[in-house]
Fold this protein.
Amino acid sequence: SKSRPKPATKRIKKAKKLKKQNKVLVIGGGLAGCESAYQLANRGVEVDLIDIKPSKFTSAHKNPNFAELVCSNSLKSKNLDTASGLLKAELELLDSLIIKTAHKHAVEAGGALAVDRDKFSREVTYIIRSTKNINIVCQEQKDININIPTIIATGPLTTDDLADSLKKLISQDYLYFFDAASPIVTAESIDYNSAFWGSRYQKGGDDYLNCPMTKQEYELFYNELINAKTVQLKSFEGKEVFEGCIPIEIMAKRGIDTLRFGPLRPVGLKDDMGKRPYAVVQLRAENREKTLFNLVGFQTNLTFPEQARVFSLIPALKSAQFVRYGVMHRNTFINAPNCVNEFFQLKNYPNIFIAGQLSGVEGYVESVCSGLIAGVNMYKYINGVSMTKVPQETMTGALINYITTPNVNFQPMNANFGILPPLKERIKDKRARFNQYSQRALAKMCEFCQDCDINDKIS
């Protein structure tokens, strides 16, 4: 069966009172930090949630609310034959605040879970502020007190002072790569005569607006893209790029057809005349009203004027009005295999846990996952009971196993079926194989929730 088991909400709600009250510091009000704080507070733990906003903003943050989505508004696929869909299903079983709220504020995006980012962020903020046991502290945290139980979930833009404090604890250099946000255009500025609605292979209905290009139009766009001016990087930003967020101009320089086999691939799409275009740029709605659209896969480091010039060469975007240009910013993560254990706890400083992208996972849902597990394990840790090891057959457990396994050239990791243990039987059909991975994982996660005390009260 492909049905999803119901989340263990009732078991979690029972776990609010402890014989001994405890207090935890959570640094960072992003996806991971909010999830950690919520899980702890719902288990009766008093939480000080410290966030730098709104008194100060980083270079990528604009919204004063918690759980701001600074890049795409998509949490990727909902389907159980995808790794991201499986991870979300597991988090539903664990009663994730972020996943519940994302579903509540979802916008049409084919088989993906995309959200109205403003409504989503406002709702998470309201819940966090309304949750008993959570105390909000608006200030910049500059240091780490190893005597205080702390979850650090400051994400890819950890401030310099806090990063320096953490660096002293782990006694090694940080790694850096770049995350890139795609541009957003207004719906009214799109030339709909040069576009058509539809999802690849007709999956999910007319949720994407497709902007086709002929061979001549594509070659013009390609040549201008690879020769366009880019932003001069700051001295602290180096040159490393995570493959999952590679800027489109860098991808294009790998070969003229690279984009046509990547974000601009026409396979599975037909225009209103029933013909497959030479190349296609897909636009995805940013909000329910579909007044704004982002260019899917167009993470970029081009200057703002160059973005307007080059992207306007796409016929449907010839008069596009950009409400946000693509930006690149520093992303920071620790060398997790050397620093943390399978509970997201620093090996040498047991009071300190690391969650979110700082821990070495990559992606929105992956960050939520790490925040949830870090929160649950912190709850157990401060109460002096054995912490929880998630089965490796689950996507959650496989991610944790990946970031804690020794790796000479450690890089951040998204959820993917390649990190799961192989199935007992070999299944040639890819979709059938992925579905089998998911069914095994969900069965293991159900057993995990029932057999261990991850959601039970500590007495």
Summary: The mean pLDDT is 87. The first strand starts at residue 23 and ends at 27. Residues 430-451 form the longest helix (22 residues). The chain has 13 helices and 16 strands.
